[in-house]
Amino acid sequence: MKDAEAIYRTPLAAAGGLAVTGSGRQHARHAVVDRKLPNFAVVLVERGRGALETAASGRLSLAGPALFWLFPNRAHSYGPDEGGWDERWALFEGSLTRDFVRLRIIAERHPIVALHYLDELSRLFSQLHADLLDDTNLRQAAAALTLHRIVISAARQASGATDRRRERLDTADIVEALRRRAMQPLDLAAFAAEHGMSPATLRRRFMLETGMPPKAFQLRARMDHAKQLLATTDEKIETVAALVGLDDPFYFSRIFHEREGCSPREFRARYWRV
């Protein structure tokens, strides 16, 4: 990394929502002491350790990878330990920043975001810097969009949403596994163990993903398949019941009526497709 790279831009007159006014990167060796900026700033510390101090947050230690926010007209001091740190930074302003603050996407009392996933933010800072190199209206607008993505990416990591998103992707696979096997008997404890969790955890994650526990989800899948069979085949009602995993046709008819407000025969008469 070069010792320092910096670009400064005057915002477009029409860029009232969000404008990037500067960007850079450096291996910082010295502290910034008691400085005030006229605009917002975001500093990405990729490697290294140091501290940040503001009136709102007090003195905070930080270790890269981490990111912190600086607020306009607020005194701040920050800098690395003796070894220095690798940092990227951007300056920004505009009316959209009020929404960032109002929604607590960026918070003056909690300015530091410890990062679990550095690559995405490093890439976004590189893109923002490249956008500013080309001093055109289109590239300044692109830089503003990239800054917005930096704000959202940091907020997700601050809230743990990245981990939750990964958990949701895992849960979606489990939901799909149960959907494929919905016509078969379900041993909840065995199914949970197959996916490395307790039945209680399975129920909780199913509730978050689908709004219903696994047994209810299985029954819905069975009834949906029954409706398909009733509408597209001429199989007998007892056969349809068996095909969706319910050996008692009377129980099947009662459950079907409770859910659909009509009997299987009435449903077939209404939606017959053959």
Automatic annotation (TrEMBL):
Gene Ontology molecular function: DNA-binding transcription factor activity; sequence-specific DNA binding
PROSITE patterns with a match to the protein in the record: HTH_ARAC_FAMILY_2
InterPro entries reported for this sequence: AraC-bd, Homeodomain-like_sf, HTH-like, HTH_AraC
Record's keyword annotation contains Transcription regulation: yes
Residues covered by the HTH araC/xylS-type domain: 172-270
Keywords: DNA-binding, Transcription, Transcription regulation
Keyword Calcium attributed: no
Transmembrane segments: none
Protein name per Swiss-Prot or TrEMBL: AraC-like DNA-binding protein
